[in-house]
């Protein structure tokens, strides 16, 4: 370390958050290596919906979600599912999540997200203009409902975002305009809300392109699992059970739903649990001009390689547990009546991934009790949207020693 600023860093985690942090550290002249047990995009960064949607980055901890979750506990087909379990850590997390599911906590999370939302598209544009060769597509996201009354729930959420400073350009659609905007909309859908100014990507392709860009700039990506992170007077040291030992001036822990395993020893006490999501790809008979959101059944659909990627559910289960076929069938059963021309039985790319959810609705971004150890994670459903701007802000902190004001509410030691 020269002066107080690191010349080298190790990023643990090769998803969108970790690789973005690595890329922006390289922009500051830091030599970076990356470690991930599965390699690039092996976790939640591959199979998600790929939305860069600042207009829909709504904190999960609103009172309505708590009420919905309580009603869903006994319904294994519900979009939000908590399996019967004796896991005391899970129930401790859910208790804290429930304690934070009130409007004061939601408002704090929503207000804290505003700067991330305002800058997230620009951060993607910086990457795309500087060697990350994967398209970032501009398109509105259209939320579709059975009735105008159902649409009012989303419109209330948008008004709440407006009240905390997040302006969302949107247009209410009647049945005819919805059908024009969403050719896949079925007869049951009679109203919509078009959210303008959004983007989407093929998440796996984008993260792999980002990984290649990081490696072209001199990084090595090690496909090993980190078992220990320790520090001495000068260095952060990363070790694996296979004998790999790396050292650098700083280390960033960006391991998603697995974050607590390595971060807890560095003073990070905010619980993080895996909110697992499922996705698959299906052929369609009609054009897909842009992403489709079905809020009533919590399903997100995105144009993907000539078909439709369908993603949904929030399942609180161990991140390494095998996928549960019933969760997949529940997504299909809920979306099938709403969309037409979808070949549900020809699905491919079936996937489950673990989104890191915090108990208070705010991610963990910043320094820990050790001056050489930082964390970046806990973005919930919005890791894809907020990954690059997180990386840019954290790299600024690491290389200047000054905490950006945007990151104050995301203090990992709160």
Automatic annotation (TrEMBL):
Entry's EC annotation: 1.-.-.-
Claim: Transmembrane is one of the keywords in the record: no
Domain FAD dependent oxidoreductase as annotated: residue spans: 9-397
Protein name, as recorded: NAD(P)/FAD-dependent oxidoreductase
Enzyme class name: oxidoreductase
Example GO molecular function: oxidoreductase activity
Pfam families linked: DAO
Species lineage: Bacteria, Bacillati, Actinomycetota, Actinomycetes, Streptosporangiales
Keyword annotations from UniProtKB, A to Z: Oxidoreductase
């Amino acid at each position: 370390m020269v002066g107080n600023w690191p010349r080298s860093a190790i990023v643990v985690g090769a998803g969108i958050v970790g690789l973005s942090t690595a890329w922006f550290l390289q922009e500051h002249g830091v030599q970076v290596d990356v470690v991930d047990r599965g390699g690039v995009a092996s976790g939640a960064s591959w199979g998600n919906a790929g939305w860069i949607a600042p207009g829909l980055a709504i904190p999960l901890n609103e009172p309505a979600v708590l009420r919905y979750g309580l009603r869903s506990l006994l319904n294994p087909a519900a979009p939000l599912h908590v399996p019967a379990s004796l896991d005391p850590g899970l129930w401790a997390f859910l208790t804290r999540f429930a304690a934070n599911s009130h409007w004061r906590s939601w408002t704090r999370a929503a207000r804290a997200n505003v700067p991330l939302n305002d800058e997230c598209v620009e951060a993607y544009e910086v990457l795309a203009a500087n060697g990350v060769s994967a398209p970032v597509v501009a398109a509105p996201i259209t939320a579709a409902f059975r009735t105008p009354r159902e649409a009012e729930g989303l419109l209330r959420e948008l008004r709440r975002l407006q009240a905390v400073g997040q302006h969302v350009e949107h247009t209410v659609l009647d049945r005819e305009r919805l059908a024009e905007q969403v050719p896949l909309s079925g007869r049951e859908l009679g109203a919509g809300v078009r959210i303008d100014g959004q983007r989407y990507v093929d998440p796996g392709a984008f993260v792999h392109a980002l990984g290649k860009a990081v490696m072209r700039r001199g990084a090595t990506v090690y496909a090993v699992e980190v078992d220990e992170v320790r520090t001495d007077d000068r260095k952060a040291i990363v070790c694996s059970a296979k004998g790999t030992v790396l050292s650098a001036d700083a280390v960033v822990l960006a391991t998603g739903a697995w974050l607590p395993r390595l971060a807890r020893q560095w003073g990070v006490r905010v619980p993080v649990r895996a909110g697992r999501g499922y996705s698959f790809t299906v052929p369609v008979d009609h054009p897909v001009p842009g992403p489709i959101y079905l809020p009533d059944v919590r399903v997100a659909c995105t144009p993907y390689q000539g078909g439709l990627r369908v993603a949904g559910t929030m399942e609180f289960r161990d991140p390494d547990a095998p996928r549960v076929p019933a969760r997949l069938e529940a997504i299909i059963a809920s979306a099938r009546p709403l969309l037409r021309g979808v070949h549900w039985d020809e699905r491919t790319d079936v996937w489950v991934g673990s989104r890191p959810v915090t108990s208070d609705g705010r991610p963990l971004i910043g320094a820990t009790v050790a001056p050489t150890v930082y964390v970046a994670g806990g973005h919930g459903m919005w890791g894809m949207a907020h990954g690059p701007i997180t990386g840019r802000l954290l790299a600024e902190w690491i290389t200047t020693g000054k905490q950006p004001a945007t990151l104050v509410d995301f203090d990992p030691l709160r």
